[in-house]
Write a structure and sequence with these properties.
This protein has 10 helices and 15 strands. It is α/β, with parallel strands linked by helices. It is globular.
């Protein structure tokens, strides 16, 4: 097994919304287009000091809602991380709310500006057609895998991009704002998800809307659940019902209410990892969980027959 230094960070924004990053094998992905006065210094430190990269490989946006992609923050974020690829939500932003239309224009302007410097970023809209056009997921190669949207719904939340980040020594599942129970039912039938999720970003900030259920958690079985929440936490995220479910399942819950959450590989970077919850914008810790091991480490230790049994039965979704 080759060691891959891996880091995931959930950023405290100081207001409602989500911002994360995932670093593996030298590649940096920013998840959600948010950058506030509270988070900017931490994003800079994570990229330039902790991960040692000069730009992001990918900016991955799950939703056009302003708490995921903010038009007042997007230009500054693009200038800071300079992504080489931007993955946009695959549904048309609503004209009467959110920031999506203006954010799309800003992304186009960024691409044109970068093209003039000789480097043209790739813009991908994660539509059902785009997902259907991808090659079938290569489970043993551990490529990042897309699961949603498979169709466009009248409910914009259910058009959120769902992606499993699989390139590191531990895997992270990003669920955006999905809330339909039938999407949860489909996801819990996916063999890769039931075998590989270590860290799960709670859907819709941990809302109790019927998506995150005991049955879903029993199938996905993450070790760690991450909730993005602010100081005031006006929406009470995650809801008490979700907290109780996570506690019953023995899943470690970490939130960004008072500080960043860092998940990082340890030892030889072949599967062992730890979770640290920071206090504010300091390096002081409020809690730490050590000695966790990724599901991937067990899979890679398996012999060929075990791998074929685990993955060989069905080859349709995901892609």
């Amino acid at each position: 097994m080759r060691g891959i230094r891996t880091r995931f960070r959930a950023y405290h924004l100081g207001n409602p919304g989500s911002s994360f990053s995932y670093f593996a094998d030298g590649h940096f992905t920013m998840i959600e287009a948010r950058l506030t006065d509270e988070s900017r210094e931490q994003v800079e430190r994570e990229m330039f000091e902790k991960c040692g990269v000069e730009h992001a490989d990918v900016l991955h946006i799950t939703s056009w809602d302003a708490d995921h992609c903010n038009k007042f923050e997007l230009p500054d974020l693009l200038n800071l991380i300079r992504p080489m690829r931007i993955e946009c939500p695959g549904y048309d932003p609503h004209k009467d709310y959110g920031h999506g239309e203006e954010c799309l224009e800003m992304i186009a302007e960024y691409r044109a500006r970068r093209r003039n410097t000789g480097t043209t970023p790739i813009i991908r809209h994660i539509t059902p057609r785009y997902i259907q056009g991808l090659e079938l997921a290569s489970e043993k190669a551990f490529r990042d895998t897309l699961y949603n949207p498979l169709h466009i719904s009248d409910n914009a939340n259910d058009n959120s991009t769902v992606k499993l980040f699989r390139k590191g020594s531990f895997n992270v599942l990003s669920l955006g704002d999905v809330e339909a129970p039938m999407i949860g039912a489909r996801l819990r039938r996916q063999r890769v998800l039931t075998s590989e999720v270590d860290v799960m970003i709670l859907a819709h900030h941990g809302a109790d809307n019927g998506f995150t259920t005991k049955k879903f958690l029993n199938h996905i079985e993450p070790d760690v659940a991450i909730c993005s929440a602010d100081y005031d936490n006006m929406y009470d995220h995650p809801r008490e019902e979700i907290r109780e479910l996570l506690h019953e399942q023995g899943i470690h819950l970490k939130t960004t209410k008072t500080g960043d959450v860092i998940v990082r590989s340890t030892g030889e970077h072949t599967g062992e990892y730890e979770v640290i919850n920071l206090i504010g914008r300091s390096t002081k810790e409020s809690s730490r969980v050590e000695g966790l091991y990724s599901k991937k480490s067990g899979i890679l230790d398996a012999n060929g027959d075990t791998l074929r049994q685990r993955y060989g039965a069905k080859r349709s979704w995901p892609r």
